[in-house]
Amino acid sequence: MEPLIQNMHTQLQDLRRQLPRQQSSLSSQLQKLEQAIQQLPEQSMKGALALIWRKALRFQTSLHRLEKRREKAQSWMQQTLKWWNQEKVDSLRLVLNGLRDLMNPLVVRYLPPTPGVPFGETPGSDWLAMFVHSDVVSRCIEEHNASCVICLEDFEPPPLVEEEPEEAT
Which domain holds residue 155? Predict the structure, then answer.
């Protein structure tokens, strides 16, 4: 599984663990989302983001319905409905915030492609060891695709380990 997809999977599991036990329907929906993401082809980040976006839209609709139901209720019933649905509303907000975090743009580090390895495959650990270490996920990008689509700047590959600048003491 691609590291970014694996990271999403882990974040979804963490989100499920944060839900109260009474919210088993939300938990099962998140579990189905995890399974759907796992079944995607290895390089389908767009597909995973689309699945998450659709699920977030459904949760947002559910939250909106609960809030509208409370607003339309008789004044003497509004407080009771607020109390009755508060845990569900809080859980929906927690899930929506978690899904929004998953949909935020991912930060990756550009690496030149590994020679002799088909494009799209994860670079080997020996290839990654040549470059200065980073906690950011590394992705190999072909030279003609190595520019930012937002600011149109060309990406610069990270320095090699032996080229690392010396720190002044």
Answer: 107-169
3-7, 86-90, 118-122: range with highest mean pLDDT: 86-90
- CA dihedral (51, 53, 54, 58) positive or negative: positive
What local confidence, expressed as pLDDT, does residue 1 receive? 47
33 or 9, greater pLDDT: 33
Indicate whether 91 and 15 sit together in one domain.
yes
Is the domain of 76 the same as that of 17?
yes
- My answer on whether 148 and 67 are in the same domain is no
Domain boundary among 52, 73, 103: 103
pLDDT of residue 163: 56
pLDDT above 50 for 61: yes
Q: Within this chain, do residues 128 and 142 fall inside the same structural domain, yes or no?
A: yes
pLDDT of res. 149 = 60
